[in-house]
Design brief:
The structure holds three protein chains of three kinds.
Chain A lengths: L2 H14 L5 E5 L2 H10 L9 E5 L4 H4 L2 H12 L3 E5 L13 H6 L3 E4 L4 H9 L4 E6 L6 H13 L5 E5 L4 H10 L6 E5 H7 L6 H6 L3 E4 L3 H17 L4 E3 L11 H10 E8 L3 E10 L8 H4 L15 H5 L23 H4 L4 H8 L4
Parallel strand pairs in A: 1-2, 1-7, 3-4, 3-5, 5-6, 7-8, 8-9
Antiparallel strand pairs in A: 10-11
Helix pairs in contact in A: 1-11, 7-12
Chain B lengths: L4 E9 L2 E5 L4 E5 L11 E5 L2 E5 L5 H10 L4
Antiparallel strand pairs in B: 1-2, 1-4, 2-3, 4-5
Chain C lengths: L13 H14 L20 E8 L5 E2 L2 E2 H14 L4 E12 L4 H18 L2 E10 L7 E10 L15 E5 L5 H10 L16 H9 L6 E3 L5 H10 L3 E6 L7 H10 L13 E5 L3 H9 L8 E8 L4 E4 L5 E3 L13
Parallel strand pairs in C: 4-5, 9-12
Antiparallel strand pairs in C: 1-6, 2-3, 4-6, 7-10, 7-11, 8-10, 9-11, 12-13
Helix pairs in contact in C: 2-3, 4-7, 5-8
The chains are: A alpha/beta, B mainly beta, C alpha+beta.
Chain lengths: 355, 71, 332
């Protein structure tokens, strides 16, 4: 272990000493993954509990939205382009992967621009790009649509289920989440600016730290949070200044705002949250899959007994949910928290609490 | 949602750049960082540079810590 | 011989004979295949190893290898890790009508090359042709026979408490090479597969008198799959993450695509579990081979319930679960 990590570990322990049981929430699936990957919990004193909020786009994609994607993939003339993350998410008995195995044209892409290349290469097919992700990823979709417009590509469209973090965080905290401090997603901040999280201390009166994803960067942010908690001074610390400028990437934000507008979005486990989704603006209707296709609405009701909403708020530990491990398990997930391996329940199931 | 890794821009070709990730190079789009220059370190997410990175400075990290008073 | 494979080539008549005489026989030259009888009649020992495997990779050709090289190396490696001397291979091919004959020639030449490297003979085979669209160009199955010399040591394939786990070389190359080639991901330099017959590496270790407890080639599911299988229900395995060699190109590709190197397929790696006291000798034996210069101790075996843990660079632990399905690139 290097000296930096050891110094940070000691600093966290010193600052947390004497604090009551403290809940730190991170709201980024990549943080959830990184915490586990580095075993961060093992470096923290016993009075700090890390919980995962609704920051995993895989987990929070509503069943009805996923059903739209599956319907599109099932259309004969459509090739659906998607990030690998969404391929295995179950929608009833199917998934994009299972449909692909049955002959649906589903293409895993690593960049949205691959959808553009595909549209040019196969002018007689309808190429639909499944736009999943938060503020880090949505500008890429905006660039895709912008390019498609400039290059007059007629056979490309986008199914946007993009979401934005601030409203979801507000909704979560205002509805009684048991959270003492927020670890803010560093790459959302790289695009939207560290100041995008100013509302956390100012409106929600919680300490917030913008964090990177390397072990040292996460420990640094945690140390900053402990310091603020100890001093009882909620504020915003940018512990990732190398990547997150105060006002982010203006070019990316301009493109985002030019192509998308806010709308209400359905978050699996949390329900409808106003102004938390991104829809293509009217002038881009030609690239909007929801307008190009007559996609039937499939109602996929939240299953009875699902307690994801409480788990996401840090009010319930996964094993305390009555469905955990019985009706709801990784191979047959019921709610958002079990769907992705990084969801709180799936992670608990696979790894146990301490790791 | 946020898997992004740093790379160094070694060549620019219109809207695209070749970045060195230490072990391999690969192209990424510069559409979101129009001011990028050869030699810049960039944060790359899903084939796009999303931000130009500031200088690496370990000392800075500990300064951040010092920012927050500990009673 | 025409430029393209047609259905006629698979139906056993003149066209088939042409295929065999113009493409397969010149490549797989030996006394056992030459008679073109239904079965090859072979000398062998009283104890045999026998294995079979199917190969359906896309794309057929990728940096560092191809389907033909895989089809021979994979089966040779499966025989080698049993402790046997690989000897004979049977090949069954299913070709898609419309496949370029030159493509077939390239794959067959590659098979012959891998067979020569491994010191095995391809002694019998069969080809069928299916209509265009019914298979992806080419599917190859190979079966292999290996022999155990008298008094040969047969590893029990059971890891023991106190064992050291050794890798013959860097991991995660093959799976990333194929993923990168299939997705046109444009890594430069291209990620290269490590596909290679490893009979020589296994031989060196066994000939050094080391009584290996278990050996396996970590193909599908990578190192993680092998370690989880070895842990079974009565052992725990601790992997030293920092000690696991990964070539810089493959490592960069894993970082960029969000893939864990532990789960990536390898086609030119052998994992050994052996008594700790033998680790030094095993490494010395392996490192004599150019392909195994980076052989290293990467873990240890203890008593337990089937848990595999990796020790991170922070000295913390993370659980390594068995793989569930193919690794896909992620953005999250």
């Amino acid at each position: 272990m290097n000296a930096g990590v050891e110094a940070l570990r000691r600093e966290i322990a010193a600052r947390a000493d004497g604090l009551p049981d403290t809940v730190v929430m991170e709201v980024c699936g990549t943080h959830t993954h990184a915490m586990r990957r580095y075993g961060i919990r093992q470096l923290l004193p016993g009075n700090i509990r890390l919980v995962s909020g609704p920051g995993c786009p895989v987990c929070v994609t509503d069943g009805r939205d996923l059903a739209r994607a599956l319907w599109l993939a099932g259309q004969r003339n459509v090739t659906l382009c998607s990030f690998g993350d969404m391929l295995r998410v179950p929608c009833g008995k199917e998934s994009l992967l299972s449909l692909a195995a049955k002959g649906a044209r589903v293409r895993v892409v690593v960049s949205p621009l691959e959808a553009l290349q595909l549209a040019r290469a196969e002018p007689r097919r309808a190429i639909v790009y499944f736009g999943v992700g938060f503020e880090t990823t949505a500008p890429l979709t905006a660039a895709l649509v912008d390019q498609a417009g400039r290059q007059s590509i007629p056979n490309l469209s986008v199914l946007s289920v993009h979401k934005t973090m601030p409203e979801a965080v507000r909704t979560l905290m205002r509805s009684g989440a048991r959270v003492d401090a927020l670890l803010c997603p560093g790459h959302v901040a790289a695009v939207a600016g560290a100041e995008a999280f100013r509302f956390v201390p100012e409106e929600l009166r919680l300490p917030a730290a913008v964090s990177g994803f390397e072990a040292e960067e996460m420990l640094l942010a945690l140390a900053a949070l402990m310091g603020m908690l100890r001093a009882k001074k909620p504020g915003l610390v940018n512990a990732y200044p190398r990547a997150a400028a105060p006002y982010g990437n203006p070019a990316a934000l301009a493109l985002l705002e030019g192509v998308f507008e806010p709308r209400a979005a359905n978050w699996r486990g949390l329900g409808e949250i106003p102004a938390s989704g991104l829809a293509l603006r009217g002038e881009y209707a030609g690239f909007d899959a929801e307008k190009r296709f007559d996609i039937p609405l499939t109602d996929v009701p939240e299953p009875a007994g699902c307690r994801c909403a409480d788990v996401l708020r840090g009010l319930l530990e996964p094993p305390e949910c009555p469905l955990f491990g019985s009706a709801c398990a990784p191979q047959s997930p019921v709610g958002a928290c079990m769907v992705s391996s990084e969801g709180a329940c799936a992670a608990h199931y696979a790894y146990g609490r301490d790791l | 949602m946020c898997l992004a890794i740093p790379g160094r821009i070694v060549e620019i070709d219109g809207d695209e750049a070749v970045l060195d990730y230490g072990g391999a190079t690969r192209r990424a789009s510069l559409l979101l960082v129009p001011g990028a220059k050869v030699g810049d370190a960039a944060l790359v997410h899903a084939g796009f540079a999303i931000q130009i990175l500031g200088d690496e400075d370990a000392g800075k990290l500990m300064d951040i810590l010092a920012e927050v008073e500990t009673p | 011989m025409t430029d393209e494979i047609t259905l006629a080539h698979g139906s056993g008549g003149e066209a088939y004979r042409e295929l065999v005489e113009e493409i397969f026989l010149p490549a797989f030259k030996n006394e056992y295949i030459a008679p073109l009888t239904d079965s090859a009649v072979l000398p062998g020992g009283p104890r045999l190893a026998f294995t079979t495997d199917g190969y359906v990779v896309q794309p057929l050709f990728f940096p560092g290898g191809d389907i033909g090289r895989l089809a021979v190396s994979g089966t040779v490696n499966d025989l080698s890790v049993s402790g046997a001397l690989p000897r004979y291979i049977a090949v069954s091919m299913v070709l898609e009508a419309g496949l370029c004959a030159q493509t077939l020639r390239r794959a067959v030449t590659s098979m012959a090359g891998a067979a020569r490297e491994a010191g095995v003979l391809i002694v019998t085979g069969d080809t069928k042709v299916v209509p265009c669209g019914a298979c992806d160009g080419m599917h190859i199955s190979t079966s292999g026979i290996g022999v155990f010399p008298d008094g040969a040591y047969v590893p029990p394939q059971r890891v023991e408490i106190g064992d050291a786990v050794i890798t013959s070389g860097p991991v995660a190359s093959h799976g990333m090479a194929v993923m990168a080639a299939r997705g046109g991901m444009g890594f430069d330099p291209p990620i290269e597969s490590d596909a290679r017959p490893m009979a020589d590496a296994v031989r060196r270790v066994l000939d050094a008198g080391i009584r290996v407890h278990a050996m396996r080639d970590p193909t599908r599911g990578g190192v993680a799959a092998t370690l989880c299988e070895w842990a079974g229900r009565e052992r725990n395995i601790l992997l030293y993450e920092e000690a696991l060699p990964v070539k810089p190109g493959a490592a960069a590709a894993c970082r960029i695509l969000g893939i864990d190197p532990l789960y990536v397929a390898n086609e030119g790696v052998i994992l050994f579990s052996l008594a700790h006291k033998d680790a030094g000798a095993a490494l010395e034996a392996l490192r004599e081979l150019p392909a195994c210069r980076e052989a290293a101790v990467v873990g240890e075996v203890g008593a337990g319930e089937g848990i595999v843990l990796a020790r991170t660079r922070l000295n913390t632990l993370r659980r390594v679960l068995p793989p569930r399905g193919e690794q896909l690139p992620r953005i999250c």
